[in-house]
Amino acid sequence: MYKYLTVEAQGSVLRVALNRPEVFNAFHRGMALELQQALFEAGQSTELRAILLTGEGRAFCSGQDLSEAIDPQGPGLDRILSEHFNPLILQIRALRKPVVVAVNGVAAGAGANLALAGDIVLAAKSAKFIQAFSKIGLVPDSGGTFTLPRLAGFAKASAWMMLAESVTAEEAERHGLIYRVTEDESLASEALALAQKVAAMPTEALALTKEALNASLFAGLEAQLELERKLQIRAGASADYREGVAAFLEKRAPNFKGQ
User: pLDDT value at position 191?
Assistant: First the structure.
């Protein structure tokens, strides 16, 4: 049923793994729509009580597949945000079941911000979080400009986004981005055990807790996602974006001119 995800019920937990390991689980339209469908079906199920989201292979998610983003026949940045990532972020926050995220490797760009939208986030010690957007002349999206300052504070969020610095799992835990760091080899088992634990709890109370947290922390998220979309369209029309993507694909240093 799913081509770009591994989806399996493990008792009352639905394990969903991004499954494009050959491109470090970069998102394209097919995978984004499949993840929306998997989350929708999990939300409708009376047997599934928690979701475990992770990635296959060495990465959690490297963000948007740039080959699709620059394809003249592709969806373009506007549709990528309005139809792919923004609905996913809102869906995760609205889902009335706990979403446990196991970050098994690099989480970059939209992949990092997708992970941070989860309810309980674990990360392997070798995992890294990178707000990689500025490397190719774009702005953070997928709720990054909303979530990250609220978790880590303005100073760290601003620097991480502008400098596109790699943040280690231990640093992410220290600054409140994630719940816990695990050893690489134990991430999968610890994340599943945690998802099974919350699945056995009074999940209606957890849903109401999530609703209260959404009102407290995530009020205004939808408006910020829309602002990110508008700003991303402007960034995507810049010469720096074209240069950034070209340099990335050609594996060379970009020559940005602020245009």
Answer: 98
- In this prediction, residue 195 carries a pLDDT of 98
Residue 181 φ then ψ, to 5°: -100, 140
Break the chain into its structural domains and give their ranges.
1-184+203-259
CA distances from 209 to 94, 148, 216 (A): 12, 21, 10
C-alpha span between 142 and 122 (Å, rounded)? 19
Regions of the chain with pLDDT less than 50: none
Cα gap 162→183, rounded to integer Å? 30
Which amino acid does the sequence have at 125? K
What is the pLDDT at residue 1? 83
188, 102 in Cβ contact below 8 A? Answer: yes
The rounded Cα 230 to chain-centroid distance in angstroms is 19
Three-state DSSP state, 230 = helix
Is the domain covering 1-184+203-259 a CATH 3.90.226.10 domain? yes
CA distance 92 to 209: 14
In DSSP notation, 142-170 reads TTHHHHHHHHH-HHHHHHHHHHT-EEEHH
Q: Which of 50, 28, 186 is nearest to 111 (CA)?
A: 28
Q: Which tokens is 104 given?
A: 């098994």
- The DSSP bridge partners found for residue 108 are 130
CB-neighbour burial class of residue 55 (10 A; exposed 0-12, middle 13-18, buried 19+): buried
Q: How many CA atoms lie within 13 A of 93 on its CB side?
A: 25
DSSP label at 252?
Answer: S
- H/E element, 86: helix 86-94
Give the model's pLDDT for residue 206.
Answer: 98
